[in-house]
């Protein structure tokens, strides 16, 4: 404890808080990667949904529990065919065990993420595994256990609108829940061949709804995100911003009413302590503001380059860039709240003009505010 106090005295509190936040974020991302079983480095464990091929009719507000544009899905590694439960037919798969059988994302069987035809230069597809076609290279026959097909010279599955299908290797037949044809149908033009196991990135195992819409917003594909998802995203970000800010506001109100001094003194508490503490808070905020802006400027060209290359899933660049956008938005709103409280307490002139300036100029406006208000006179009760 003494060591921590010593560190806090020598290092600005904002640096300590940033380090703690980075450690927490690293721990969360590391845990997600370990749980997914994906190789590191290698296929990222998170994928953003960009199309509506897996949507369902009459979904509830917020669309939780199904795969919709703007969702972030965790891709759990698949090592064998038995790791995937197929939707199936009369003789196997998720439907075989009855109406209470194995379901994921609103229907029977697992949803897999795969590279069509094994290609890495096109967007991966996230569709439901309908069945597994086993091809015998010796006899040139096919077996599809889920539909009772054994040693046939071709695959005919009327439920999937496949007739006389003759692929040259084994693999999954896949289909989007919202699509008319399976991916292997000639009319679909998605993946003419069955999906080989080595083409599979993983199976969908958990989702973070709405937040992937931030990536789609900056890649020009946000038109597929439904209105209720935008509402839920805005509410979620507002709550995330409000929680830490509410603690400082609570302490400020308690002290203003003459309540017992609170041991935990946040930034708002320091603003009213004395001129030195106030300037320390504003200076630390200014440094953090410029630091985040610098990272955004460095990440933007890398992000644009990967977007032009049509990287489908959230790679390291995408993950960091989306995270930085969220942090920048939260920081921007927090700075505006900080300036408002500081200006009201220290009687800053033209406070609303300062707030408008910072809204449009960000750290540049805040820097001018910092240097222009250093000599503000405190209120009488300081």
Topology of helices and strands:
Blueprint (H helix, E strand, L loop, with lengths): L1 H9 L2 H24 L9 E3 L23 E5 L26 E2 L2 E2 L2 E4 L10 E12 L4 E4 L4 E4 L2 E3 L4 E4 L5 E5 L24 E9 L4 H7 L7 H30 L10 H5 L3 H34 L7 H30 L5 H11 L1 H10 L10
Antiparallel strand pairs: 1-2, 2-12, 3-4, 5-6, 5-12, 6-7, 6-11, 7-8, 9-10
> How many DSSP E strands?
12
Enumerate how many helices there are, as a single number. Answer: 9
What Rg is obtained from the alpha carbons, in whole angstroms? 27 Å
Q: Would you list the SSEs in sequence order as H and E? A: HHEEEEEEEEEEEEHHHHHHH
Which blocks of ≥5 consecutive residues have pLDDT under 50? 260-264, 308-317
> What shape does the CA trace take?
elongated
Q: What is the percentage of strand-forming residues?
A: 5-15%
Which structural class best describes the helix and strand composition?
Answer: alpha+beta
Number of domains: 2
Mean pLDDT equals: 78
The residue fraction in helices comes out at 40-55%
Biggest sheet descriptor: 8 strands, antiparallel
Cα-to-Cα separation, first versus last residue: 31 Å
Q: If you had to describe this structure to a student in words, what would you say it looks like?
A:
By secondary structure, the chain is α+β, with helices and mostly antiparallel strands. The protein folds into two domains: 43-208, no CATH class; 227-372, no CATH class. The chain contains nine helices and twelve strands. Strands 1, 2, 5, 6, 7, 8, 11 and 12 form an eight-stranded antiparallel beta sheet that branches. The chain has a two-stranded antiparallel ribbon with strand order 3-4. Strands 9-10 form a two-stranded antiparallel sheet. β3 and β4 (107-108) form a beta hairpin. α6 runs antiparallel to α7 and α8 (351-361) packs antiparallel against α9 (363-372). It is elongated.
């Amino acid at each position: 404890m003494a060591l921590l106090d010593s560190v806090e005295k020598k290092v600005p509190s904002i640096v300590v808080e940033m380090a703690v936040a980075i450690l927490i974020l690293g721990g969360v991302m590391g845990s997600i990667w370990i749980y997914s079983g994906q190789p590191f480095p290698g296929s990222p464990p998170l994928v953003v949904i960009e199309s509506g091929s897996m949507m369902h009719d009459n979904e509830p507000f917020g669309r939780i529990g199904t795969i919709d544009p703007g969702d972030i899905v965790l891709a759990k590694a698949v090592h064998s065919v038995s790791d995937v439960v197929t939707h199936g037919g009369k003789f196997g798969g998720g439907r075989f065990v009855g109406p209470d059988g194995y379901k994921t994302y609103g229907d029977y069987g697992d949803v897999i993420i795969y590279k069509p035809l094994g290609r890495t230069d096109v967007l991966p597809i996230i569709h439901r595994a309908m069945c597994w076609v086993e091809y015998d290279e010796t006899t040139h026959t096919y077996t599809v256990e889920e539909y009772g097909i054994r040693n046939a010279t071709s695959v005919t599955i009327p439920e999937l609108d496949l007739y006389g299908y003759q692929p040259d290797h084994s693999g999954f037949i896949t289909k989007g829940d919202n699509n008319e044809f399976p991916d292997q149908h000639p009319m679909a033009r998605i993946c003419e061949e069955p999906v080989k196991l080595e083409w599979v990135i993983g199976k969908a195992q958990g989702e973070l709804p709405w937040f992937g819409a931030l990536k789609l917003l900056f890649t020009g594909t946000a038109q597929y995100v439904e209105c209720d998802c935008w509402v839920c995203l805005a509410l979620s970000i507002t709550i995330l911003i409000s929680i830490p800010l509410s603690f400082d506001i609570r302490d400020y109100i308690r002290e203003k009413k003459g309540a017992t001094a609170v041991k935990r003194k946040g930034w708002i508490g320091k603003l009213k302590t004395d001129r030195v503490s106030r300037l320390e808070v504003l200076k630390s905020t200014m440094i953090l503001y410029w630091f985040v802006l610098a990272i955004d400027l460095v990440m933007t060209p890398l992000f644009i380059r990967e977007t032009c290359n049509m990287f489908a899933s959230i790679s390291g660049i995408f993950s960091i860039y989306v995270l930085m956008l969220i942090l920048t938005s939260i920081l921007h709103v927090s700075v505006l709240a900080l300036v408002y409280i500081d200006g009201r307490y220290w009687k800053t002139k033209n406070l609303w003009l300062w707030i408008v300036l910072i809204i449009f100029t960000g750290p540049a406006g805040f820097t001018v505010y910092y240097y222009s208000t250093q000599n503000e006179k405190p209120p009488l009760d300081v």
